[in-house]
Known about the structure:
Transmembrane segments: 33-55
InterPro entries: PilO, Transl_elong_EF1B/ribsomal_bS6
Low-confidence stretches: none
Keywords: Membrane, Transmembrane, Transmembrane helix
CATH class of the largest domain: Alpha Beta
CATH topology of the largest domain: Alpha-Beta Plaits
Pfam family, one: PilO
Helix content: 55-70%
Number of helices: 4
Organism: Vreelandella subterranea
CATH superfamily of the largest domain: Ribosomal protein S6/Translation elongation factor EF1B
Strand content: 15-25%
Largest sheet: 5 strands, antiparallel
Amino acid sequence: MIWKRARWAQEWQQLRDVDWRDLDVKEAGGWPLLLKALCGGLALLVAVLIMEWLIIGERRADLASARQQESRLLGDYRRQSGEAAQLPKMREQLATLEDQMARIRAILPTDAEIPSLLDSISDAAVDNRLTIETIRLRPTVTQRHYVEQPLDIQVRGDFHQIARFAADIASLSRLVTQHDFTLAPVDNSGGNLRLSLLARTYRDREENP
């Protein structure tokens, strides 16, 4: 043990006595043992740092990228999982909407049914003993999903006859909406009123693509 201590003390003294300016790599074999060990440790440290920079650093970047991708995929999975959970409800709502659209299409007149619809409006006026002044079509208006067919209607009669006439139009088997009502007395008519209104019916645009 004493010998080993003396040996290390000698090596330490040799390391302290080294003139660092006179060191030559070509004479490294004759360097003190501690100096060799120190240089070997430094070389190992440099090698480890280079390995860290070249290999581990690249793997670390790959790991960070993989974690980001994992986070994104997890977010996509959660979103799609939520959408999948809502899918039965959305299908049910879609079926309800399709059923409502089918019922609406069923009450829309076709282009060929417009003349008979005018006849039905005229019949309603006659049935309520109104005097027909005007029932005529305006030019059609094409919307995004349907074609709008406006109608000008002007009739004369008493208040109750006009009210029943408006109710009969609303109860037709084909959809007719009523707009822009104008109700005014007719001069020298014994209390008769004149009803002017704009009616609209609609047809499916897919009928005439």
